[in-house]
């Protein structure tokens, strides 16, 4: 497990998710097999065919001071909360700001700001628009605010690749450090897209579960009776650091961000390529990029969204490239699908799985679909082996984006 | 009935607190928005719009840039 590249380590974790307002509460709820899905109570719920979502467990406006909340889109609120937790966790007293970067993206950006602002514009005119409307709606807003807060001047970036965004951001951050552009990078993904327009639009694609009578059973990756994804919201952020920088300051290291593999399906704007060729290419490339073999990989946090099309193909790709030995978890069964935030929180979960040697379970998997020949962690979590082990987080997005990020234990 | 300077100050303090989080009692007449209260131009626009709602006095953009202190705003609202 060695490469001649700069080693990138994980020194901080932050999250706010449908399972908890921070990493510790999210992780313990995940291991307990809890569902973050709940009924929507907004008055618009009658206008859409899906009556539930995985709302954030802690509303960000309860955490942030009101003057700050009102100038941030909800996407930015989640990202700042998770970034502050990750930054505090990393406990970096001193860093050269020209060597400090941010890569935080969102799949959609400040869409609720756009829609609410347009209502204001139509009803009251332009003078009533908040002067913060533009920085709230721009998809790089979260990255910008985090960069200002920590003084990151090496470069502040926002990747946009739908549901692969969070993983792509972390991959980009690994490359920023490896290429010598930065010593420390705050990276991850965020999303806040629970709005009737989005639900209506995803429903128009027939992509969402409509299991309205059993919302907590609706997100069921690999189950024969899955009928679509469940929309979630929140953010997951990591602090990545060159090993040299981390060791020099005596930082606690939670894992190694070993590498990233990117590919694209070049097939369809929203449907996964049916042979899994793109997914396999991303996984082959992550092994190559990390200097790992399939045998090293003991755990996969799968993309597994609970849509009929993608779940099984991904498992075939895992078997083909890595083998049938890793413990494969579908944590969206509990968190719902955070879109651009998914790769962020699932990377946090993958790092914790290695650090604590436990693969989270997959709930609602009553009847395993045909053609799945990998070791899915059904129900309760399972122990991961001792020794040096590695894991992969897969994230795929509309547009045909395939991203796999590899982490190894310390 | 016209508001007293004290009433306007209290109203302005409340608006500034709502928008920026600065405690209302720190909003005193001699304070400069930029130098003392660290309020940026975007927040000044928000404050001007809120003041218009509260006091029924429109602050045009070309006047807004001349309002440097809390006292200037009170004076403008008093007319």
UniProtKB/TrEMBL annotation, chain A:
<comment type="pathway">
    <text>Lipid metabolism; fatty acid biosynthesis.</text>
</comment>
<dbReference type="InterPro" id="IPR017568">
    <property type="entry name" value="3-oxoacyl-ACP_synth-2"/>
</dbReference>
<comment type="similarity">
    <text>Belongs to the thiolase-like superfamily. Beta-ketoacyl-ACP synthases family.</text>
</comment>
<dbReference type="GO" id="GO:0006633">
    <property type="term" value="P:fatty acid biosynthetic process"/>
</dbReference>
<feature type="domain" description="Ketosynthase family 3 (KS3)">
    <location>
        <begin position="5"/>
        <end position="409"/>
    </location>
</feature>
<dbReference type="InterPro" id="IPR014030">
    <property type="entry name" value="Ketoacyl_synth_N"/>
</dbReference>
<dbReference type="Pfam" id="PF00109">
    <property type="entry name" value="ketoacyl-synt"/>
</dbReference>
<dbReference type="InterPro" id="IPR014031">
    <property type="entry name" value="Ketoacyl_synth_C"/>
</dbReference>
<keyword id="KW-0808">Transferase</keyword>
<protein>
    <recommendedName>
        <fullName>3-oxoacyl-[acyl-carrier-protein] synthase 2</fullName>
        <ecNumber>2.3.1.179</ecNumber>
    </recommendedName>
</protein>
<comment type="function">
    <text>Involved in the type II fatty acid elongation cycle. Catalyzes the elongation of a wide range of acyl-ACP by the addition of two carbons from malonyl-ACP to an acyl acceptor. Can efficiently catalyze the conversion of palmitoleoyl-ACP (cis-hexadec-9-enoyl-ACP) to cis-vaccenoyl-ACP (cis-octadec-11-enoyl-ACP), an essential step in the thermal regulation of fatty acid composition.</text>
</comment>
<keyword id="KW-0012">Acyltransferase</keyword>
<dbReference type="InterPro" id="IPR020841">
    <property type="entry name" value="PKS_Beta-ketoAc_synthase_dom"/>
</dbReference>
<keyword id="KW-0444">Lipid biosynthesis</keyword>
<dbReference type="GO" id="GO:0004315">
    <property type="term" value="F:3-oxoacyl-[acyl-carrier-protein] synthase activity"/>
</dbReference>
<dbReference type="InterPro" id="IPR000794">
    <property type="entry name" value="Beta-ketoacyl_synthase"/>
</dbReference>
<keyword id="KW-0275">Fatty acid biosynthesis</keyword>
<dbReference type="InterPro" id="IPR016039">
    <property type="entry name" value="Thiolase-like"/>
</dbReference>
<feature type="active site" description="For beta-ketoacyl synthase activity">
    <location>
        <position position="163"/>
    </location>
</feature>
<keyword id="KW-0443">Lipid metabolism</keyword>
<dbReference type="Pfam" id="PF02801">
    <property type="entry name" value="Ketoacyl-synt_C"/>
</dbReference>
<dbReference type="GO" id="GO:0005829">
    <property type="term" value="C:cytosol"/>
</dbReference>
UniProtKB/TrEMBL annotation, chain B:
<comment type="function">
    <text>Carrier of the growing fatty acid chain in fatty acid biosynthesis.</text>
</comment>
<keyword id="KW-0597">Phosphoprotein</keyword>
<dbReference type="Pfam" id="PF00550">
    <property type="entry name" value="PP-binding"/>
</dbReference>
<feature type="domain" description="Carrier">
    <location>
        <begin position="6"/>
        <end position="79"/>
    </location>
</feature>
<dbReference type="InterPro" id="IPR036736">
    <property type="entry name" value="ACP-like_sf"/>
</dbReference>
<keyword id="KW-0276">Fatty acid metabolism</keyword>
<dbReference type="GO" id="GO:0005829">
    <property type="term" value="C:cytosol"/>
</dbReference>
<keyword id="KW-0444">Lipid biosynthesis</keyword>
<keyword id="KW-0963">Cytoplasm</keyword>
<comment type="pathway">
    <text>Lipid metabolism; fatty acid biosynthesis.</text>
</comment>
<dbReference type="InterPro" id="IPR009081">
    <property type="entry name" value="PP-bd_ACP"/>
</dbReference>
<keyword id="KW-0443">Lipid metabolism</keyword>
<feature type="modified residue" description="O-(pantetheine 4'-phosphoryl)serine">
    <location>
        <position position="41"/>
    </location>
</feature>
<dbReference type="GO" id="GO:0016020">
    <property type="term" value="C:membrane"/>
</dbReference>
<keyword id="KW-0596">Phosphopantetheine</keyword>
<keyword id="KW-0275">Fatty acid biosynthesis</keyword>
<dbReference type="InterPro" id="IPR003231">
    <property type="entry name" value="ACP"/>
</dbReference>
<dbReference type="GO" id="GO:0000036">
    <property type="term" value="F:acyl carrier activity"/>
</dbReference>
<comment type="similarity">
    <text>Belongs to the acyl carrier protein (ACP) family.</text>
</comment>
<protein>
    <recommendedName>
        <fullName>Acyl carrier protein</fullName>
    </recommendedName>
</protein>
<dbReference type="GO" id="GO:0000035">
    <property type="term" value="F:acyl binding"/>
</dbReference>
<dbReference type="GO" id="GO:0009245">
    <property type="term" value="P:lipid A biosynthetic process"/>
</dbReference>
């Amino acid at each position: 497990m060695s490469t001649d590249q700069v080693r990138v380590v994980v020194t901080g974790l932050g999250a706010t998710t449908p399972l908890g307002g921070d990493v510790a509460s999210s992780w313990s709820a995940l291991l307990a097999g809890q569902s973050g899905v709940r009924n929507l109570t907004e008055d618009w719920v009658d206008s859409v065919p899906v009556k539930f979502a995985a709302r954030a467990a802690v509303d960000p406006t309860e955490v942030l001071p009101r003057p700050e909340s009102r100038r941030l889109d909800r996407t930015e609120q989640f990202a700042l909360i998770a970034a502050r937790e990750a930054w505090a966790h990393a406990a970096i007293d001193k860093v050269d700001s020209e060597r400090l970067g941010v890569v935080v993206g969102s799949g959609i950006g400040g869409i609720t700001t756009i829609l609410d602002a347009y209502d204001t514009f139509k009803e009251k005119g332009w003078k009533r628009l908040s002067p913060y409307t533009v920085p709230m709606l721009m998809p790089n807003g979260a990255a910008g605010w985090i960069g200002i807060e920590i003084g990151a001047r090496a470069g502040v970036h926002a990747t946009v690749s739908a549901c692969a965004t969070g993983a792509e951001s972390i991959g980009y951050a690994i490359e920023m450090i490896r290429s010598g552009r930065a010593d420390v990078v705050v990276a991850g993904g965020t999303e806040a897209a629970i709005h009737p327009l989005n639900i209506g639009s995803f429903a128009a694609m027939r992509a969402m579960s409509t299991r309205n009578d059993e919302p907590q059973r609706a997100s069921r990756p690999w189950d024969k009776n899955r009928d679509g994804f469940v929309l979630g919201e929140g953010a997951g952020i990591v602090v990545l650091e060159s090993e040299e920088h981390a060791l020099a300051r005596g930082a606690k290291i939670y894992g190694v961000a070993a590498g990233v593999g990117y590919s694209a399906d070049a097939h369809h704007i929203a449907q996964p390529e049916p042979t899994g060729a793109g997914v396999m290419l991303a996984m082959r490339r992550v092994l190559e990029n990390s200097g790992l073999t399939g045998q090293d990989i003991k755990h996969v946090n799968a993309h597994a969204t609970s849509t009929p099309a993608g779940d099984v193909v991904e498992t075939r790709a895992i078997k083909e490239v890595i083998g049938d030995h890793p413990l494969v978890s579908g944590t969206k069964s509990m968190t719902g699908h955070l879109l651009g935030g998914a790769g962020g929180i699932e990377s946090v979960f993958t790092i914790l799985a290695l650090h604590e040697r436990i693969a989270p379970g997959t709930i609602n998997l009553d009847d395993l679909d045909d053609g799945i020949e990998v070791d899915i962690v059904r129900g309760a979590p399972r122990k991961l082996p001792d020794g040096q082990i590695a894991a992969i987080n897969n994230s795929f997005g509309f547009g045909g984006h395939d991203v796999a990020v590899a982490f190894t234990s310390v | 009935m016209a508001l007293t300077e004290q009433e306007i100050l209290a109203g302005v303090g409340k608006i500034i607190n709502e928008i920026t989080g600065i405690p209302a009692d720190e909003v005193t007449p001699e304070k400069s928005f930029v130098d003392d209260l660290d309020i940026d131009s975007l927040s000044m626009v928000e404050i001007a719009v809120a003041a218009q709602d509260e006091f029924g006095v429109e602050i045009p953009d070309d006047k807004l840039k001349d309002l440097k202190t809390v006292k200037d705003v009170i004076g403008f609202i008093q007319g």
